[in-house]
Amino acid sequence: MLLISCPNCGSRDETEFHYGGQAHVAYPENPNELNDREWAEFLFYRDNTKGAFAERWLHSTGCRQWFNMLRDTVSYEIQAIYPMGAPRPDKAAPAPESGTASTAPDSTTTGTAAPSTAETSIATSTAPASTTAPEGATK
User: Fold this and answer.
1) Which of 3, 68, 73, 106 has the most Cβ atoms closer than 10 angstroms to its Cβ?
2) Above 90 in pLDDT, residue 116?
């Protein structure tokens, strides 16, 4: 489950938001001059990038305001949240507050992503695993 930081309301659960598609898609300057193929490309053809992707989101159950989000489509990491009409921020600059995604086996996210254990050593421990949920989580 993603925690999305609404620019107006603060961090909220992703169920309060609706996805609005790819951000920064310019409306045609002369729509009356487009043929059917050009209209189809404007309406239906979108980038499908792996990695950082600019998206539009609506806080539908909160302030009802649209905003843009730069999100990694592989890790679900939210890199930046910025207002509509603002240029896409640099990919290298993370946002001060970012969202999270669960990659646990019982997660509702799709794919086979799992936390990396490459940098950590796995040691057996007699201490039981923590069973407390993070702050703000619901059951």
Assistant:
1) 68
2) no
What count of other Cβ atoms lies within 10 Å of the Cβ of residue 48? 8
User: pLDDT tens digits, residue range 10-69?
Assistant: 999 999 999 999 999 999 999 999 999 999 999 999 999 899 999 999 999 999 999 999
The pLDDT of residue 1 is 79
Angstrom distance (rounded) from CA 134 to CA 9: 20
Q: Are 116 and 103 in contact (CB under 8 A)?
A: no
**Integer Cα distance of 39 and 23 in angstroms:** 18
Residues 1/14, Cβ–Cβ less than 8 Å:
yes
| Nearest by Cα to 77 from 59, 47, 55 | 55
Report in angstroms the alpha-carbon separations of 72 from 20, 81, 92, 103, 104.
16, 12, 12, 14, 18
CA–CA separation, 66 and 62 (whole Å): 11
CA 104 from chain center: how many Å?
18
